[in-house]
Amino acid sequence: MLPTPDTSHVSFDTIYEPSEDSYLFLDTLASTSESEWLSERFPSQEASPLVVEVGTGSGVVLAFASAQSQQIFGRRDILTLGTDVNRNACIATRTTATTAINTEQQPSPQTVHISSLTADLCAPLRPGSVDVLLFNPPYVPTEDLPSLPSAAQNDPALAEAMSRSAKFDNDSYFLSLTYAGGADGMETTDRLLDAIPDVLSARGVAYVLLCKQNRPEDVKERIRGWGGWQAETVGSSGMQAGWEKLVIVRIWRADCS
Amino acid sequence: MKVLTANFVTCAVKDCKTSPASFPLHFHDAELEQEELEFQPEFIRNILPRIDWPALCTTANELGFPTLPESKPEGDKLEDEQTLKDLHRLLLETHVTEGKLACANCGHQYSIKEGIANFLLPSHLV
Questions:
Q1: PANTHER family from the entry (chain A) (predicted)?
Q2: Which of A28, A122, A233, B78 is most buried, by the most CB atoms less than 10 A from its CB?
């Protein structure tokens, strides 16, 4: 088994701690079938792929994809970038990714983590720029969807000036963003799915994790209805009453391979 | 944030996406830091096809980097070690640690603090 990136430097006050869903992501990317598919999709003589994770949290998934690029993509010359609405998560991801690359890729690290950006999903990314998109969303069905933080709410000076109870409320708010998915747990995932055709390159592919309550079969049908797009379940875990609790769906343009 | 990032980002405001003025974003008051990384000519050659050259020239100019060639290196120029080394230094070894990225279409400025750019929008722009 390939090693899990170290996240012992991360404070989980406002950041999602790697859990069953994160590990399903690592196992799926490292599976023989996915690494073969990805290596074929991004042959080493073609331009370096840009791998983007949206909502990185601790950065464990992006760090794994970066550090194990040879095993997953069949090449090390890849670029990785992360986004998260929580500035603390961006700082954590940068450390998790660069540490994992430097630990796993010796004597000469090749994969480069170019940045972690505080952002809503892929809002600042240039259309057509992303080759591999990874998303472990806030997928739990909840009555309300927490509102997005503003730039000001991520000001480091603000957190420092907080009272203990204000900090507790603030931490709870940021943690709610990591899991609360609103109606069917799909409100944030739906926004990401809507962005996929624009942000992915012609050879692009997205991996999105869904839980049973998100109705993965319906989601796949919907994507196939876009015209020219494919969606397949490529990883799953935790059988519950005959259904997989969590699945990872691969989404790609069928007209490009 | 490595300088290469500027070639992959644009304004987060939806209405700006279709305007050519929203790319590249423009650096203001940028503070830079150099990090030594092993030079890998093959990696630079594989990054080059993805680079929007005029945008990179704009970025390099704003950051006070020596002038890049007018057009993207091709053919024999890809064998020129000095050219690739200059690109390696600019794209991968140079970090922007503080400063702002501004959209020339809407004028919004995104701040960069400790190397993390903040693209969250104030409510009136969402």
A1: METHYLTRANSFERASE N6AMT1
A2: A122
